[in-house]
Amino acid sequence: MNMATINDQITDEIRKEARRLLKTGEVAALIGYAAGSLPMTVKPLVVRCLEDCERLVWNTFCVLNLATYLPEVLSSVETPYDPRDPRPEEPQAKVAILATGCWSRNIVIQIQEKRVDRERVVVIGVGSRGMVSRAKVKALFPEKDILTVDEGDHELVVHGADFTETINRWAVVRDNCQTCAHPDPVLVDIRIGEPVSERKNPHPFQQVELLEQRSSEERWAWFTAEFSTCIRCYACRNVCPLCYCPTCFVDDARPQWLGKSLDAVDTGLFHVLRAFHCAGRCTDCGACESVCPMGINMRMLTKKLNKDVRDLYGIEAGMEPEAPLPLTTFPLASVEFIVADLAPLPAAARIVQPSSEGDESCKHG
Amino acid sequence: MQTWMISPVELDGLIQQWQKSYAVYVPALSKPATAATDCAPGWRRINAGEPWTLPVGPTPASVKSFYFPQPEILMTFHLEENHPDKGVMREPLKSHEMQVVLGVRPCDAASVLLNQLPFTEDPLFMAKCQRTALVGFTCTTRLSTCFCTEMGGSPHHCAGLDLALSPLQNGFLLEVLSEKGETLVAGCKLVPASESDLAVLADRRQGQGATSSYSSQLEVLKACALSRLYDAPMWQELGEACINCGACTFICPTCFCFDMQDEVVQGQGRRIRYWDSCMFPLYSQHTSGHNPRGKKLQRTRNRFLHKLKYFPDRFGPFSCVGCGRCIGDCPVNIDIREVLNDLVRRTELE
Amino acid sequence: MSWEPGIVVFCCSECRCTGVEEAAGSNCKAPCNVRIVRVPCASLISEYMIMSALRSGADGILVAGGSFDDCHSAGEKVGDHRRFVLLENLLEFIGVEPGRVHLSWESASPGDQLRVLIENFTEEVKALGPASKLVKQLEPVQVVE
Amino acid sequence: MISYMPYPVRIDDIVVETEDGSLKTFTLAFEQERHQKAWQHVPGQFVMLSVAGAGEAPVGLASSPTEGERLLCTVNRAGLVTTALHQLKVGDRLGLRGPIGNGFPLDREMKGKNLVMIAGGFAVTILRAALMSVLARRQDYGRITFIYGARTPGMLLYHEELRQWAQRGDIDLYVTIDREAPGWAGLVGFVPTIAAQVAPPPTNSVALICGPPIMIKFTMPPLEAIGWTDDQVYLSLENRMKCGQGLCCHCNVGPTLVCKDGPVFTRAQVKRLPLEY
Questions:
Q1: Cβ–Cβ contact A153 with C under 8 A
Q2: What is the ipTM of this complex?
Q3: pLDDT of residue B207
Q4: Which of D93, D94, D250 should be substituted to probe chain B, the one whose Cβ sees the most B Cβ atoms within 10 Å?
Q5: pLDDT of residue B331
Q6: Any idea what DSSP says for residue B197?
Q7: Which residue from B minimizes the CA distance to A144?
């Protein structure tokens, strides 16, 4: 058998840390992944006892953003209290969570938006080497049933009933990971594995720019075709750590903003508004796109907004826990500026510039 | 009924003949250029001579939307001021156009029969049954997510189909299974299947009898007391991982929950019924705000128990055909086969 | 009869709507096609209101926010301005005609100026033609008599 | 075959029942005679009232079939549809689908028995229907105890009828309000407290209890203390429902569908169900 891969080593370290954290009582629960029942899948798992630590895995298919689960798991370990009583004052149990670059930025946003108490979270940082898109791998083997996929550091070995093929890992990494500039967590309490350096990325918004260059009619044709297969299952919404309204605007009855059935207009509006709500907050974790059962590229909309937010207001979401939220908090000085000529704000210094010594090697798998 | 031997060329001719008088639908494998046709996303209508391919295993979308479209217009009305019919509900005219759905797999055919159990009194569903002919292909490949045999089906079964095609070396065995099927092949000169071909088919079906030990375990599950399954600790972990999206319910061929609502656009109104999912919190929420299934765990449990306990309690069979779509598309890899196994283990613990 | 676009104007009643009724009622070129929605503060205009106007078939939507200078919720307004710029861009990105939804976030102006703004906007929308994108339409259904 | 098409009905009368205006009783008449002729219901059943453009909402029937052709529905203004309903005027049209559900077995299990009806809040509507049916054939039943509680005197429904029932002499009527209120000379106290004081023994009796879950929860122990069993107690469950025909699955409580198998269950039946109502 091959040498232990980087991810095998990370898995071992995660298990070790998990055991330690739970044993010492430092945390009451840990959010991670267990092996899935199908090739290229993992299951989110909340570990609460030592036995379950052995079920934790880390591999290149961890596409779901674990931050989605954080607020709920935090409240599940709180001492129960009657909602009519004041919150208990004693310090509440902590929760540990695995986080890559984008997930950690989502945790930062949860802290900024007061969804999560920084004191109660133990961030186990893992530098991301890019997660593989199951859809991309499947597309390489049309009409074939993939039975297992073995993971090496730079390649994947795909086995079917009548074939075995080795493919380059980076070639099937998700689009958002390929254009990601911040693969390393911005918030780390416990570090697992080696830090991954910032990536130089000359064209982070290439897909968006390509579409922007097309004509209005072509863009409309793209939009209608892309979203025509939506079945309104709301997986994109529910998997998103940014979506946490108790009642989503699609479900509102008074007033009812949108129709609920499959209608091109209602479906389109849902996606536009959902993306809009992520403006200035989206970290491009790609969970929405990864979970869509119909393979819709709704990330294009959030990516466009990310581009605008960066170009107009000079902000990248979730980079600093102390920073204010771009669309709700800002220095009043900038008010004058907008009034003056309605021009976009200059790119502020808050953009984290990719370091010039970015590690190019990781791009090649 | 009769079984024929048909070559691929003859089959193409047959399909072209249907296209003269019926709407013929095939699985859509890529995104359609325009909006979903006829409210059957995942399927497309083809014209004479247009090529089509059948995917291995179940079609991407189930045939559910042909019977239970999303949305279905129940009635229409006008709300414009001074309209003589203001507020009067009118029923839409039912279509009688025959439609042929080509490329149905045995699991989906079984799902139509299952859904007919609750919908037997529903005029809209049954009218669509009347005008829809299912032309199916039995499966030669079993995907790793397929588990139809476990649910009492078989890749070679043809129950629920009007015409069944089973691939052989140099063509297909064409089984005519209903009056609608008869109509579809009426007037065609076809070669009857030979004894040896029939024997091959019989042989395939023989080999795929119910896997006895598992199916007897499932019978035990059906008879198990509800409280025992309801209180199983397994729901905790499932409920925690589930993100409560509706992907599994919407791609499932046998999920049939619906909601009803009025839509009004510029004075014109209609009452529609559209797919709902028991995974959504609002599904069971009272007007008062009280929600009997307010927790994720309760909703996840309700979905599985509905399929594996409540439906069998009412109608007999499980409300699952083992197509495996939900396994492949669940964002958090909740695998109904694992749920089944856990439940079976639960019945064994005493 | 020539086609007149349907216009929805969301405007702040504190700083933009002064005299606007007269503007839309008596002087405006296409008075009956302009619907003015007055809100107590421009920061109360939500993306839902804009999108639902679009969905209901408005040919042009004008969001007329007021001055930041003398507004007690200037901060929120700036946030909304920032957000609406993004929304405008996003709509353009998906292929809605530029100019269908227009933001006018200017300093306090009497009704007269708003009237001119509405008139100009109406002319621009007229050039765009009727809205069809993101407009909800119910297909006609034959009914049992 | 089931149908989604409501019968057209007309509002013949509207009575504002409570001081806060949140409850109105609508008198409904069928627009078409054939619908009128075909209509049959039993107390405890409900209907789907539909307002075009707003949708449908389940509402319990407050009238008994013995009261003639008109149907009475007392509607609480709570959601989208009921708010739209409250805005309608006499003469307006609306749609009605039903009757839905099983209703109380007044002609079967309950016949010849002593009846105890316990109502809290506006759940009294279906018990009004039951009582009117019973009064129309008073000789078929034994002793009748009717306990009804509301928050304040102004929240009591059916004032005129309460007065008539009090005067009849063949009903043990106990009307109570939660707290002392000026001008109120009647009973004061929560329904469970009053029930504990006045509940008759369970011999040859059945109880019909309708009200908020918390009231039912606290009414049961005093009844059980004097020997009532779960088989003798009939409850009406409530759940969100849409189709009203046992199809859409919204109202399921375990394998049971409230709209089709219920809404009336004995307490023994309810206890066998999971707590999802």
A1: no
A2: 0.91
A3: 67
A4: D250
A5: 93
A6: H
A7: B56
Q: D7-100 — its CATH code?
A: 2.40.30.10
Q: Hey, is the C-beta of A364 within 8 angstroms of any chain B C-beta?
A: no
Chain C residues whose C-beta is within 8 A of a chain A C-beta are 47-48, 51-52, 55, 67-69, 74-75, 78-79, 81-83, 85-87, 89-98, 105, 107, 133-137
Rounded alpha-carbon distances, angstroms, from residue C51 to A220, A282, C126, C130 = 16, 21, 20, 16
Separation in Å, CA B250 to CA A328, B325, B328, D170, D213 = 37, 10, 13, 57, 34
How far does the CA of residue A308 sit from the closest CA of chain C (Å)?
7
Low-confidence residues of chain B: pLDDT under 70: 1, 31-39, 207-212, 350
Q: Backbone dihedral region of D163: left (phi > 0), alpha (psi from -120 to 50 degrees) or beta? A: alpha
Among partner residues C56, C136, C142, which is closest to B92 by beta-carbon distance? C142
Instruction: Tell me the C-alpha to C-alpha distance, in Å, between residue A309 and each of A312, A315, A320, C71, D202.
Output: 5, 6, 16, 25, 72
Read off the pLDDT of residues C87-97 as tens digits, 9 standing for 90 and up: 999 999 999 99
Are D248 and B91 an interchain contact pair (Cβ–Cβ within 8 Å)? no
Q: What is the DSSP string of B247-305?
A: HHHHH-SS---EEEEEEEETTEEEEEEEE--TTSGGGS--TTS--TT-SHHHHHHHHHH
Find the closest chain A residue to C67 by CA distance.
A339
Nearest beta carbon to residue B141 from set A45, A145, A293: A145
Domains of chain D: which residue ranges? 7-100, 114-236
CA gap B50, D125 in Å, rounded: 63
Minimal CA–CA distance to D104: which of D43, D169, D165? D43
Model pLDDT for residues D231-269, shown as the tens digit of each residue? 999 999 989 999 999 999 999 999 999 999 989 999 999
User: Which chain D residue lies closest to B78 (C-alpha atoms)?
Assistant: D52
> Rounded to a whole number, what is the distance in Å from the CA of D80 to chain A's nearest CA?
7
Among the partner-chain residues A226, A234, A262, the one whose CB lies closest to the CB of B71 is A262
A265 vs C135: CB contact, 8 Å cut-off?
Answer: yes
Pick the CATH number of D114-236 from 1.25.40.20, 2.60.40.1220, 3.40.50.80, 3.40.50.300: 3.40.50.80
Per CB distance under 8 Å, which residues of B are interface residues toward C?
Answer: 73, 76, 90-93, 263, 265-266, 268, 270
Domain map of chain A by residue range? 206-341
Is residue D80's pLDDT more than 50?
yes
| C45-87 confidence digits (pLDDT tens) | 889 999 999 999 999 999 887 666 666 666 566 667 788 889 9
| A48 has pLDDT over 90 | yes
pLDDT digits (tens, 9 = 90+) for D177-188: 999 989 898 999
pLDDT of residue A313: 83
Judge whether B210 is closer than 8 Å to chain A, CB to CB: no
- What's the start-to-end Cα distance of chain A, in Å? 21
For residue B191, list its beta bridge partners.
B5
- Which residue of chain A is at minimal alpha-carbon distance from D83? A254
What's the pLDDT tens digit per position in A339-365?
A: 433 333 333 333 333 333 333 333 332
CB pairs under 8 A between A and C: 106
The better pLDDT of the pair C2, D194 is held by: D194
Residue D85 has what pLDDT? 94
Going along chain C from its start, the domains and CATH numbers come out as 7-128 (3.40.50)
- pLDDT for res B61: 87
More confident call, C40 vs D242: D242
pLDDT of the residue at C114: 77
* Cβ pairs bridging A and D (under 8 Å): 3
D125: nearest Cα among D83, D41, D62, D51 = D62
Among the partner-chain residues D55, D240, D246, the one whose CB lies closest to the CB of B262 is D55
Distance from CA of B334 to the nearest CA of D (A): 22
